[in-house]
Amino acid sequence: MTADQVVTHEGSILEKPINIEEARSFVSGYAKAPPSTVGSVTLCHIPSNIRVTGVDSATIRFFPSVAETEGGKDLVQKLLEDNAPILSCAGGLMVEHPLVKEHIEKIEGTEASVMGLSKELVLHLLKELKT
User: Fold this and answer.
1) Each residue's pLDDT tens digit, 60-90
2) Which residues of the chain have pLDDT under 50?
3) 90: alpha, beta or left, given left = phi > 0 and alpha = psi -120 to 50?
4) N or C, fewer C-beta in 10 Å, the chain?
5) CB within 8 A of 7, min separation 6: which ones?
6) DSSP characters for 25-62?
7) Average pLDDT, the chain
8) Which of helix, strand or coil describes residue 8?
9) Nearest Cα to 31, choosing from 104, 114, 96?
């Protein structure tokens, strides 16, 4: 199995932020337009070399509060103080983090897909591979 994921936002692919300022820029943008994740999976049956591939996407709709400052601290600062790995995540945020969850209005798709690997897609591809 091989899998990868990217975050897209307003027509751009967002990598891991290169610094705190870029993370803040990403988060600020999420208040204006929702980011999406696009993940792909390829399964290969080695003896037969049969491969199946699929793509799954999800959109994360944030409340405007995601870019607001509270008590002199923005979300990025709060995440840094909590030792969240914002510079290690494409798009700068982990939707499963409690400080981020409170700013999510809804996820169109599955949380597993947003986190990096769609269980539903993998199961679908396994069924496809068996036929």
Assistant:
1) 999 999 999 988 899 999 999 999 999 999 9
2) none
3) beta
4) C
5) 13, 14, 35, 36, 37, 90, 91
6) HHHHHHTTS--EEEEEEEEEETTTTEEEEEEEEEEEEE
7) 94
8) strand
9) 104
